[in-house]
Amino acid sequence: MRFELFIAARYLRAKRRQAVVGVITAISVIGVAAGVAALIIALAITNGMRRDLQERLVGSTAHVVLMRVAADGMRDWRPLLERLRKVPHVTAAAPGLYGQVLISRGARSGGALIKGIIPADEKTVGDLLQATKEGSADALASQPVSEAAGQRAVPPIVIGGDLAETLGARVGDTVLVTSPQGELTPLGLVPRYQRFTVVGIFKSGFYQYDSSYAFTRLADAQRLFSEPDLISVISFKVDDLYRADVVGQAIEAEAGKGFQTTNWMEQNRELFRALKLEQVVTFIVLALIVCVAALNILIALTMMVMEKTRDIAVLMSFGVRAEQVRRIFLLQGLLISIIGTVLGLIVGYSLSWAGGHYRFIHLDAAVYSIDYLPFAPRVLDAVIVAAVSLGVSLVATIYPSGSAAKVLPAEALRYE
């Protein structure tokens, strides 16, 4: 062990003539640990929110969506679909027909975005149908039953869990779906309506989808909207979701004029920008805790220099250089910071792991879009937080170590 480090460690372990110095040193360690732990937990939460929202968004929606610029839908879409499936980096494609509707059951009702799908294709571009917790989405795969004896079979529908609670609907119940795209009659525009049987209820944990999304067969949606053999979008899944914008441009070029694409990054750019800003602001605010702990280190070392003035003079009279005295107190402050940082990292990562594993902090999904507080600690965060903690603490040791190096042995020992 180097001479300076040996003396610094001895000074930390030695009994104090003034108990307040030891108390302030302990507070310094606790302060650094608290600041580091708070930073690790806060960064784990913001990373977890970003990761969880991204996974849910990407899993629940397509990576790229193609639509008509004129918003009049796509007719004769099957050849186009087969051609676009061959675009490089496209792994799956699925047609869909969106429409705003009112779903009601008895006196209860709620607005919804219904999507007509081909289930086998839809499952390749999104995971909402796989999130069915009650009933089953397999009924959507059955073919529509033709009219018989003047009656049409009630078609199936899968709705979100929060929408089901709003309607008071369960699997097997019948709901009335009303479309504003009605029929023109002598009495005016009459909305179209159709009864559906709830065959499944999905719960993705993402409030936007659970509260307003519903799925039915493409043919049933086309019949509801009086749009035979029409689709409004083609959804795509790509092999690299971070290159969705580039693949989207290739899809646009292949589709030709009159088409445009959007991707998951464009649809959620403001959300992720807000999360990034929140992470930066949180880091800055909580880093102030480390700065306060660094002030404690400065005070503790300053008082220790005053207490050890006689010892410093004796050491310098034995030939210890001023640079070595400076390093002794620099190392002493660094040891305080290292101990606090290590303790803070252990506490922060332990709490983050527990929070991520047991999910014991629940949230209101209507407000936060997710129903629990996610934690995602990263190794890079530990490196950044440790570097900030050690750097701030090292700055705090400059003044007291410099004061120690300026001690004059003759003056310090004059009255000894």
Q: Could you walk me through the main structural features you see in this protein, from its secondary elements to its overall organization?
A:
The structure is a single chain. A six-stranded mixed β-barrel has the order 3-4-9-6-8-7. The chain has two domains: 3-57 and 271-412, no CATH class; 71-257, no CATH class. The mean pLDDT is 85. With 416 residues, it is α+β, with helices and mostly antiparallel strands. The chain starts with a helix and ends with a helix. Helix 1 packs across helix 12 (322-358), helix 10 packs antiparallel against helix 12 and helix 12 runs antiparallel to helix 15 (398-405). The chain contains 16 helices and twelve strands.
Q: How would you sum up this structure in a few lines?
A:
This protein has 416 residues and is of the alpha+beta class. It contains 16 helices and twelve strands.
Share of residues in helices: 40-55%
- Overall 3D form: elongated
Mean pLDDT: 85
Low-confidence stretches: none
Distance between the termini: 31 Å
Cα Rg: 33 Å
Strand order of the largest sheet: 3-4-9-6-8-7
Number of helices: 16
Given helix and strand content, the structural type is alpha+beta
Membrane topology: Multi-pass membrane protein
GO cellular component, one term: plasma membrane protein complex
Main location: membrane
Family: Belongs to the ABC-4 integral membrane protein family. LolC/E subfamily.
